[in-house]
Amino acid sequence: MTRNPPTDRRASTRDHASGVEGRLDAADGTDTVVDDRCPEYDVVTTPVLVVGAGAAGARVAIELAESGIESLVIGKRDHGDAHTTWAAGGINAALGSLDPDDDWAIHAADTLNEGHHLNDPEAVELTAKGMPDRIRELDEWGMPFDRTDDGTINQRYFGAQSYRRTCFVGDRTGEAVLETLIDRARELEVPYRDNVMITRLLSDGTRIDGAVGFDMETGQGMLFRTNHVVLAAGGFSALYHRHSSRDDENNGDGQALALEAGARLADLEFVQFHPTGMVGDRYGEEWDGRLVTEAVRGEGGRLYNADGERFMERYSPDQMELDARDVVARAIAQEIREGRGTETGGVYLDISHRDSEYVRDRLPAMVERFDSLGVDITEEPMEVAPTAHYTMGGVGIDFRTGETGVEGLYAVGETVAGVHGANRLGGNSLAETVAIGKHVGDHVASEVTDGDDEPELTGGHRALAEREFRALDDLAASDGTITPRELLDDLGDALWETAGILRDAEGLRNGLDELADIRARTADLRVDGDRTSRSFEYAVDLSFSLTVAEAMLRAALERRESRGAHYRTDFPETNPSWRVNILVSIDDGELSTSHRGVGEPSAAVREALEEGYELDYHHLE
Q1: Which residue out of 116, 117, 193, 297 is catalytically annotated?
Q2: Is 107 a catalytic residue?
Q3: What's the CATH fold of domain 275-387?
Q4: Is 207 a catalytic residue?
Q5: pTM of this prediction exceeds 0.70
Q6: Among the options 242, 274, 389, 462, which is catalytic?
Q7: Is 465-579 a CATH 3.40.50.620 domain?
Q8: Bridge partners for 41 per DSSP
Q9: pLDDT digits 0-9 by tens, 24-71
Q10: What is the Cα–Cα distance from 90 to 584, expressed in whole angstroms?
């Protein structure tokens, strides 16, 4: 296979599948198909389409290129502007730089404990085993890791980790990971295309024949002919009104696309609420929920309520601020609910007891951000409160291959479920992208054949694509009275109130009722602008978000216990009989749930679990 960009391939100007005359667009080498029955659209052919240009998608594409396989990476934003850059604190690997007793099996055990043993054990072990090599690989590719005095890669504590295994670049680790991967992809001449949004996968429920979307800068429809699609489109935490993502990403598009193509979703009820998001009433609405990295607590940051009490001493006297994220988030929520929060609805996070130069060296982005808001974190505390941050659930895959059960459809990164179980260990999100991304890229490369250079598109899928283009045109022409942003805001409020940190059956049912009402109101939708407008983008997001929100609510209602990030006040105990994954699929046009048993870890990991390794926070004191 060649590595030439797919847009350089000159396909025939006559599309034999539909008999429609097209014209060649000499600017980028794509076919522009013109048909009176549907809007104009371009046709792009590629052996592998990677949907998502963050770390997971980039690592898949790198592996493909190193195997000599051509792919096209597409993203909804400018190249390099992916959600990966918001993962600040670090990336896990059992290097033993500071704690030589650490090893991959203990990393795996910590991951399973944090995930309350709903994780896919094979996925956990692939990640933990692979990460030392992936860190060394990133180092070789030029990632500027912080170093110890003797020149080894430095590591810090992160919540619920037995040892210091989180490698970092100050507090901009995700940005550094993505920059390093992009530089490597450019060396390999991996082609990419910015500002493209996929709205439908062409699938009969059993196999993939391509994808449909549009160019967000021009509004032009795009039909991708391909036999292999890798979804690396992120999670769905931005469905909540208070979240750590930007409003225009992590809307559930990857999960919705896979579900509608015939794949199953798993573990959707597990949404991680990070303990420390910025408080909008203090810092401004645009900052509400923005993440204050766990690195602040990893470097010794302390939590205080409005009474000046270091309250984690009551909730977790051994692990304190570095207990599991769900534990710390519920503790903060409890303090606020019982009246010990600040006037603006948060608690205090304080790192000012550490040397100011140390703080500036280890947390430069946090120092800069708060400086811009008139707060010197080396001298005074930050106000924080929980925020929706990460979604453990997603597409069910085979982690050695990335296969989804739909032929030709693969998934990776936060789009999938399995590594994190019921709660994610901090520092494992970036680890999963590169560790599993390599496996998925390697497998997809083995599946590509010479025939994938010119994949066929059935007449039925051509018709499905053209129906999608007409539907997008109709959506852009919506002239009702309610904007997509209004409905997305209402959805975010409903989920925060009914499926937030604390849940019960009544609230979850109310959430489904509110969701049905929002769906009904889409009949009066108004899109302001054409297909290049943010309003149109939000309208497309709304469709994905409603689908995933319903699936999440139904899974949360189904799980009648508390486990990890899913806390039911009407079922507050963990029930061993619920050690199952809840799956969501589409059957006869309706969402349905089923259960699947969880596998057991290997002997090496079982031994590490039995040893009972645990962080002693007081090492930091």
Answers
A1: 297
A2: no
A3: Flavocytochrome C3; Chain A, domain 1 (3.90.700)
A4: no
A5: yes
A6: 274
A7: no
A8: 33, 221
A9: 232 344 555 555 667 789 999 999 999 999 999 999 999 999 999 999
A10: 32
